[in-house]
């Protein structure tokens, strides 16, 4: 008899709140052969790399088109790669850290503040363009799945201190210094697996300044 096997995985958003669930039902006529019964319903896609998801879809769609079941090993490997083994899946991320006093005591307008973050992010990508993680982050299949964490520091002194700590730890980043004023405003890391760099940013808060 046909046995229905349920494969599901959860995904977390950058702010660590559970924000999605994906599921797929596959049927098996024995323990060795599976066929796709239903594509996963993607409510929100947060942590799974686009390349892995594309691989999962390719294997499943080929199975359906050929009218034959996919091998269990293929299904297991592709599903684990696309959806991860749990809610704590690692993923590539770029950290952007900006000075809170820019829009606070210094009264910079929104556009000028956003420009600083864009400068730092773009410069870091270019400086570390040959890194494998950067190339994966910017790959065509992943370009619509970028993840950034935008944090804030109190002032220039705190920003410079963080930059020094990152440099000491060998963490690739760009400290953006606005010219010709020689005024540091923001820093951005190159893309890293979150688990590699998250410890450097634990004490900083997400930038949640109201707009307008």
UniProtKB/TrEMBL annotation:
Identify the keywords attached in UniProt to this record, alphabetized.
Answer: Hydrolase
Q: Mark the transmembrane ranges.
A: none
Recorded E.C. number(s)?
A: 3.1.1.29
Which InterPro entries does the annotation name? Answer: Pep_tRNA_hydro_II_dom_sf, PTH2, PTRHD1
GO MF entries: peptidyl-tRNA hydrolase activity
> What is the top-level taxon of the source organism?
Eukaryota
> What name does the UniProt record give this protein?
peptidyl-tRNA hydrolase
Catalytic activity reported: an N-acyl-L-alpha-aminoacyl-tRNA + H2O = an N-acyl-L-amino acid + a tRNA + H(+)
Q: Pfam families, from UniProt?
A: PTH2 (PF01981)
Entry annotated with the keyword Glycoprotein: no
The family database entries (CDD domains) matched by this protein are listed as: PTH2_like
């Amino acid at each position: 008899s046909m046995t229905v096997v349920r494969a599901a995985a959860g995904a977390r958003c950058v702010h660590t709140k559970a924000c999605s669930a994906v599921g797929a039902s596959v049927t098996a006529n024995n323990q060795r052969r599976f066929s796709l019964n239903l594509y996963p319903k993607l409510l929100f896609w947060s942590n799974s790399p686009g390349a892995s998801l594309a691989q999962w879809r390719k294997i499943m769609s080929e199975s359906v088109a050929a009218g034959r079941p996919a091998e269990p090993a293929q299904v297991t490997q592709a599903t684990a790669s696309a959806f991860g083994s749990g809610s704590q899946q690692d993923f590539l991320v770029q950290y952007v850290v900006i000075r809170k006093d820019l829009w606070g005591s210094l009264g910079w307008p929104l556009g000028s503040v956003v420009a600083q973050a864009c400068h730092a992010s773009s410069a870091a990508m270019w400086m570390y363009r040959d890194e494998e993680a950067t190339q994966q982050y910017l790959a065509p299949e992943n370009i619509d799945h970028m993840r950034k964490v935008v944090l804030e520091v109190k002032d220039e002194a705190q920003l410079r201190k963080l930059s020094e700590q990152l440099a000491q730890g060998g963490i690739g980043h760009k400290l953006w210094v606005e010219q010709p004023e020689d005024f540091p405003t923001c820093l951005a890391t190159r893309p890293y697996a979150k688990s590699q760099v998250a410890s450097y940013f634990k004490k900083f808060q997400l930038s949640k300044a109201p707009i307008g």
